Amino acid sequence: MLQIFIRFFSLGLISFGGPAAHIGYFRQTFVQELAWLDDKHYGSLVALSQFMPGPGSSQVGFAIGYHRGGLLGGLAAFVGFTLPSFILLFLFAVTSSQLLNYPITLGVIHGLKLLAVVVVADAVWIMFKQFCQRKTAILLMLTSFAVISLFPGIWIQFALLMLAAVVGQQWLSSTDSLGEPKQSIKLNYLWLGLFTLLFIGSSIMLFGGISSQESGLLGLFSQFYQVGSLVFGGGHVVLPLLQSSVGDAMSGDQFLTGYALAQAVPGPMFALAAYLGAEIWVAQPLLGALVATLAIFLPGFLLMLVALKSWHAMSGRPKITGAIAGVNACVVGFLLAALYDPIFTSAVKDNLDMVLVVIGFALFKLLKPNIFYLVLSFAIAGAVIS
């Protein structure tokens, strides 16, 4: 367990670049260097993480730890990989009131907000090319973008995801495996029952008319558990659902500050929950950060435990893959809406900001620099401007 923790903790210290980069780090370390599993097994874990809602790279890390040391191994991998970013974002949250007194700090944060525009715009472009190749998928993307822009809210997003799954099941199903014999799907119903129970309970907490004063930490847990249950694609896709979920508890500028700071630290993007939980639960910020972080990661891990042994049979069902394709197209629309509001509207204030964003995006696509250097460049640019 200690070996698993140390390996993932060391990766959590240096893993800049988002889920795609994390998956590359994992393959180099656990397949090529340590040989804990082979390429075929690793590829199957990556495929399953894309199939399930939740934080993709963290789910792969959890599955590697589970393969190496059972459930405790999975937990050791999760804690090790997430701990560096959790600590940094928690410290940002509890010291932000002091740090924001300095103009240079405000400048650095503004620079990181501009970086967020570049990074999310790139994510939208990549996901559009990956998930919106068919006319039906493009229509789903545009519909979700228009509806969520005009009528923001987590209930609206949930309804759109369900609609996209139905549409995808009917019109985006793959025909590649229709001639193959269907394999039986053997799910772990214990973990599925726990996931379902928590999902229903969190839904009742959020939409049952219980006030935030009455719900307390259970309400905080429910907010982040719902987000973790509904996010397909991981990474930046979590942004619109999180913003809708916690929008009443903090200002848009405060939320974007946390997102900008999350760009500057290594590790999973879902660790943003540590910052948000500490900012929302100001009476005991460490407790709020822990509850929010646990809640947002938990559903993805539970679903991995449900399907770890049945991923191949599930991926061979055209209706299931079609539903996932529809959901993926829908979340591209969500992310496009979030790119405009709150990211673009909160970050770009004048022509100089727009110039930096356009040049930064062009250099990002042409030169493909390491994300660490990109963070440093935008932070310095923001400080100089301030």
Automatic annotation (TrEMBL):
<comment type="similarity">
    <text>Belongs to the chromate ion transporter (CHR) (TC 2.A.51) family.</text>
</comment>
<keyword id="KW-0812">Transmembrane</keyword>
<feature type="transmembrane region" description="Helical">
    <location>
        <begin position="138"/>
        <end position="168"/>
    </location>
</feature>
<feature type="transmembrane region" description="Helical">
    <location>
        <begin position="352"/>
        <end position="385"/>
    </location>
</feature>
<feature type="transmembrane region" description="Helical">
    <location>
        <begin position="259"/>
        <end position="278"/>
    </location>
</feature>
<protein>
    <submittedName>
        <fullName>Chromate efflux transporter</fullName>
    </submittedName>
</protein>
<keyword id="KW-1133">Transmembrane helix</keyword>
<dbReference type="InterPro" id="IPR003370">
    <property type="entry name" value="Chromate_transpt"/>
</dbReference>
<dbReference type="InterPro" id="IPR014047">
    <property type="entry name" value="Chr_Tranpt_l_chain"/>
</dbReference>
<feature type="transmembrane region" description="Helical">
    <location>
        <begin position="71"/>
        <end position="92"/>
    </location>
</feature>
<feature type="transmembrane region" description="Helical">
    <location>
        <begin position="217"/>
        <end position="239"/>
    </location>
</feature>
<feature type="transmembrane region" description="Helical">
    <location>
        <begin position="188"/>
        <end position="210"/>
    </location>
</feature>
<feature type="transmembrane region" description="Helical">
    <location>
        <begin position="104"/>
        <end position="126"/>
    </location>
</feature>
<dbReference type="Pfam" id="PF02417">
    <property type="entry name" value="Chromate_transp"/>
</dbReference>
<keyword id="KW-1003">Cell membrane</keyword>
<feature type="transmembrane region" description="Helical">
    <location>
        <begin position="320"/>
        <end position="340"/>
    </location>
</feature>
<keyword id="KW-0472">Membrane</keyword>
<feature type="transmembrane region" description="Helical">
    <location>
        <begin position="285"/>
        <end position="308"/>
    </location>
</feature>
